[in-house]
Amino acid sequence: MNRLGVPPLKLLHAADLHIDSPLHGLEKYPDAPVDMIRAATRRATENLVALTLDEQVDAVLLAGDVYDGDWRGYDTGLFFQRQLGILGDAGIRVYLVSGNHDAQSQITKNLRLPNNVRKFDTHQSQSIEDPHVGLIVHGQGYARRDVMENLAADYPQAAPGMFNVGLLHTALTGRAGHTKYAPCSVEELVSRGYGYWALGHVHTREVVSEEPHIVFPGNIQGRSIRETGPKGCTLVTVTDKGSVAVEHRDLDVVRWAHLRVDAASADDLDDVCELVRTQLAAERDQSDGRLVAARVTVTGRSAAHAELWRERERLTVEVRSIAVDLGEVWVEKVGPGTSPLDVGTGDGANDITDMIAGLLRTAKELGTDEDAVRRFVEKDPLWSKLSGDVRGEDRLNSSSAEWCAQLLSEASDLLVSMLQEGAR
Domain Calcineurin-like phosphoesterase: where (predicted)? Predict the structure, then answer.
């Protein structure tokens, strides 16, 4: 139970800040707001700090992957240090575990953290108590990137007379698109008797359990079209009787959206553009002043199918022009994914349509595993023959999830285009 006779205990739970994530490849898109998108993880972190102060929370729980990897320079560490210092000036403690991206083995530079920060050991579980607020946090960080053992197995049973929190970077028994690091079961976490489990690693918000609460807050800022929708943190309120309430709070400054525009009612490209305008405007209006970074895919069986594929470049330019006209919208990519009203029989059209559907389905399945494309690329004999000046962080970078996703997307588009051209 929490301490009696005092106001509720308030905690802010966040994970996967990925501060200064490089976001490769943005420069190739026309009119891309590169600086704004690259700064978005910092601005979202500042929003997190502002929310913490506004809500007057007792402590902040950061469940791993504060950084995207090793710092390019000390400025990344200095930025985070300054944000932690703001919380320290307000008397707010921060509890922090490292994850796979900012594991001890991944970070070669180091700065001393402010006195209000408690960073957990990476070789064994650790319990840190704050008797002033009746809180005890149990956690363990990552010593190396690929932690495949069950860290939760070493976490102790709940301490009596305190509100117990488990802080852990894990994919539990597995989540789509995320490597199964630090695997453990929900039943195992429940058995510890904690009042709340603050998890990280999975970038999609999920309340896994409510008795007790086991929560993935998701990342605080979407970094690509693979991470759409609102992003933020979880505000946790514990009453003096020990009951727990959780509430999602948005922190993102750029909101990614994949709009699938059904062109079934469209007769031509102009009709499609009006449908796109309507959906882009609705997405902008729902984003509360944030920049919308959108991918537009035109779908469905449509009389406009042939024109859309024939005039793909014009379609892209028209949609980007609509985004400029609407304001607060940037279109990352535009693509037709339609089929003709009558696919025909006996002339191979059905085969082509089925082949395209199968290709896109395979690409989607590959794209849910951040390591699958990397393994596929690196096992190709050509990869090992590439010189060091061709491969690297700012070049062909198989260790970058964003680069691999972009490669898969572009390969899929090229093959679909070739199949469509061959069918005509």
Answer: 10-204
With contact defined as beta carbons under 8 Å apart, do 83 and 46 qualify?
Answer: yes
Nearest to 204 by CA among 183, 185, 223: 223
Pairwise CA distance, residues 327 & 424, whole Å: 37
- DSSP characters over 175-211: BTTB---S---HHHHHTTT-SEEEEES-SS-EEEEET
Residues recorded for the chain? 424
Task: Taking each helix axis as running N to C, give the angle between helix 401-423 and helix 349-367, from 0 to 180 degrees, rounded to the nearest 10.
Answer: 180
Strands 213-216, 206-210: parallel, antiparallel or unpaired by DSSP?
antiparallel
Within the chain, how many helices (H) and strands (E) appear?
11, 15
| Residue 103 and residue 142 in contact, taking contact as beta carbons nearer than 8 Å | yes
Q: What is the pLDDT of residue 100?
A: 94
Q: What average pLDDT does this structure show over 301-315?
A: 94
CA geometry: angle at 398 spanning 200 and 218, to 5°? 15
Tokens of 380: 């190709």
Strands 232-238 and 9-14: antiparallel
| 3-class DSSP state of 213 | strand
Q: Please, what's the largest Cα pairwise distance for the chain?
A: 79
Check: CB of residue 412 under 8 Å from CB of residue 406: no
Sequential DSSP letters for 83-105: HHHHHHHTT-EEEEE--STT-TT
Q: Give the C-alpha separation, 405 to 23, whole Å.
A: 11
Closest CA to 378 of 405, 355, 399, 351: 399
State residue 206 phi and psi, 5-degree precision: -155, 125
Nearest Cα to 96, choosing from 8, 175, 180, 19? 19
Give the predicted TM-score (pTM) of the model. 0.81
Round to whole Å and give the CA distance between 328 and 296. Answer: 16
Residues 53, 91 contacting (CB under 8 angstroms):
no
Yes or no: say if 120 and 128 are a contact pair by the CB < 8 Å rule. yes
Question: CA-based Rg of the chain, rounded to a whole angstrom?
Answer: 24
